[in-house]
Design brief:
Oligomer: single chain
Strand order of the largest sheet: 1-2-3-4-6-5-7-8
CATH architecture: 3-Layer(aba) Sandwich
Order of helices and strands: HEEEHEEHHEHHHHEHEH
Strand content: 15-25%
CATH superfamily: GTP cyclohydrolase II
Mean pLDDT: 90
Structural class: alpha/beta
Low-confidence stretches: none
Number of helices: 10
Shape: globular
Helix content: 25-40%
Length: 252
């Protein structure tokens, strides 16, 4: 039997104003933040506001109950997504956002088999230059939703002549199973005004528009082409439907 934990009242008072409850059809999203986060971006320190969110079936505004529940769960075994916001994201009339899917190999190791690491840093740079915006880092999107282990198997197939789509489908997956509903709920909680979306993927645009969000425009994000990812980038356009912007690296 687990002993009941009594949390310090000072701890509760510090954190209770930083946790926002977002009700969903399946329970709740708990959003914690903003947290001051200075980031090294191309050698320059840029200060962002960082949020993290967690899905939970239980809906409660009792912060102590939330803490008590989480203390008995090893959250390190579960993926959590987060947001980096810049400028007056909540109230500014204009803002630019990126819905970025986690890429363990590209974002962390700097792999050039894809363009994800480049897109991550470049979108952060675009947000800072724009003046107001946010990067949503979606932790359950690895390999377009198939997970890291399956992505590793897909990479082996790609080394044997399969393209990205063929590899995923040969393992029993669809080309792209990513879902943006949680991120959209968090976006709506943080901001009600229009956004410009940084993406080459029409499915992301469609997800935002279908949710009722006001999307004022799109900014393309191509670059970092090499011999290692040229086939991958062309497959994005020719098989996954990514928008072929004029003057991009992948035009034939």
């Amino acid at each position: 039997m687990t002993a009941e934990i009594k949390f310090d009242s000072k701890v509760l008072s510090i954190l209770e104003d930083k946790i926002q409850l977002i009700k969903t059809t399946e329970g709740a999203i708990y959003l914690v933040g903003p947290i001051r986060l200075p980031v090294n971006l191309y050698g320059e320190t840029v200060e962002f506001k960082w949020y993290c969110w967690l899905n939970c079936k239980e809906v409660t505004k009792d912060v102590e109950r939330i803490f008590d529940k989480l203390s008995s769960v090893n959250l390190a075994e579960f993926q959590q997504s987060s947001v980096l916001a810049y400028g007056d994201f909540e109230y500014n009339d204009d803002a630019i956002i990126r819905m970025h899917s986690i890429c363990h190999t590209g974002d962390i190791f700097g792999s050039r088999r894809c363009d994800c690491g480049f897109q991550l840093k470049q979108s952060m740079k675009m947000i800072v230059k724009y003046g107001t915006g946010a990067l949503f880092y979606l932790a359950n999107h690895e390999g377009r939703g198939i997970g890291l282990f399956s992505k590793a198997m897909a990479y082996i197939l790609q080394e044997n002549g399969y393209d990205t789509v063929e590899a995923n489908q040969s393992l029993g997956f669809v080309d792209d199973s990513r879902n943006y509903s949680d991120a959209i709920q968090v976006l709506k909680a943080l901001r009600s005004k229009p956004v410009t979306l940084i993406t080459n993927n029409p499915k992301k645009l469609e997800a935002l528009k279908n949710s009722g969000l006001s999307v004022s425009g799109r900014e393309p994000l191509w670059g970092d082409v090499s011999e290692y990812n040229e086939k991958y980038l062309k497959t994005k356009i020719n098989r996954s439907g990514h928008i072929r912007d004029e003057g991009t690296c992948c035009n034939d």
